[in-house]
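Hey,

Quick one before I head out. I ran the complex with uridine-5'-diphosphate-xylopyranose overnight. Inputs first:
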Amino acid sequence: MEISVVGSGYVGLITATGLASKGHNVACIDIDKDKVDMINRAEPPFYEGQLAESLDTYVRQRANLRASSDYEKVLSSEVTFICVDTSSDSGENADLSHVKQSTKRIGEALSRKEGYHVVITKSSVVPGTTEEIIIPLLEQYSGKTVGKDFGVAVNPEFLQEGRALHCFLNSDRIIVGEYDQRSGDSVQRIYNGFDAPILRTGIRTAEMIKFASNAFLATKISFINEIGNLCKKLGIDVYEVAEGMGHDPRIGRSFLNAGIGFGGSCLPKDLEALLHKYEKMGGKPAILSAVHQVNRAQPLRMIEIVIRKLGELRDKKIAVLGLAFKPDTDDIRHAPAVEVIHQLLLQGAQVKAYDPKAMPKMQETFPQGLEYGDSAKDTVEGCDCVLILTEWDEFKDESIYTGKIVIDGRRALDPERAKSICQCYEGVCW
Ligand code: UDX
């Protein structure tokens, strides 16, 4: 099929590349000309495993993936995905300005299109957004009527950073929220070559599936962190508890890794957006609020442990290993490291940080006040305490920690072995 994808950020470019790998002809549309040029040179605009090789294959060799700043590309496609960013500068509520702007431009292009077209929301938008904002804007700017001249669908993504292409191509489920059957049929055709169950629902339901899924994952993490905080007091290993719980297929072992808490561009943002929507609808969400509260408190627990070990932090040398919100990405959005470093600096500590990928992004957040190391070993040299905030493989090398005071936020080390190597080893929840 001929497909256009608006927005070449994380979700857009992975979607476009994944669809190109299934033989579709895909046009990426982005107003950022630098990003467009990079894609057309087969250079990934952000770090994501496998993306570089895939761009090389589909942009250079097979030439079925192209980028442009021109919304006219909508006209030569049958369907258009909206994949623009919904994160706000403040990081609080979702920001719909890019969604609205791109929807208007798609609408304008559709006013010149002959024949049927389907617009698909892939950006994460709270339930009601496609019906209340996107469809009215498309009708207004195209002068056409939904259900007659064009179709609309919602097709949420469930991509995990670091393995996003794999997630796209090996999805557990494909959700197609359809305005009407014709819209849904078009989306289903896109996914013909995929080996995944396709669930066809209404538009609002599809939007909610995305938010409920992320909120549930966040709940699992905050739940195990709360249990972990109690386990630590009782001298019980929460990882053994998670193992024991996880054998029950109704519970499952995944997302029960206790520690410093969840970050990233999705879980925190989607949870907050759902909380906000709940309150806007006149309710008081008990579980969602608690999930949020527990997650905000976990980084502070680490600071409490550091103070318990070192006393006053003024002028203490703290090595921070891991800045990205999880391994295999350079993304620091809502990363626990940001809050931990902020607290350490507030208390006058001297912080030296290291991350294999995320240091350039961290330098934008903390241009001053923070020193950066060249390697994990270099970073911990001469420090009073080491904090592990991301479980990168290279931080699992125990020789880094000989004789050190180590506080592990991610269970990067085996506690028993670590205790025999470190001067002192403690985990956030163990
Ligand atoms: C998440 C969802 O998994 C994905 O389906 C959705 O589309 C986007 O949001 P992602 O943000 O890439 O994906 O990260 P994920 O792997 O889910 O991890 C999120 C955060 O939770 C990370 O900070 C991770 O370290 C933390 N986490 C995860 C835990 O603290 N414990 C766990 O058991 C699992």
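The chain is about 45% helix and 15% strand.

Talk tomorrow,
K.
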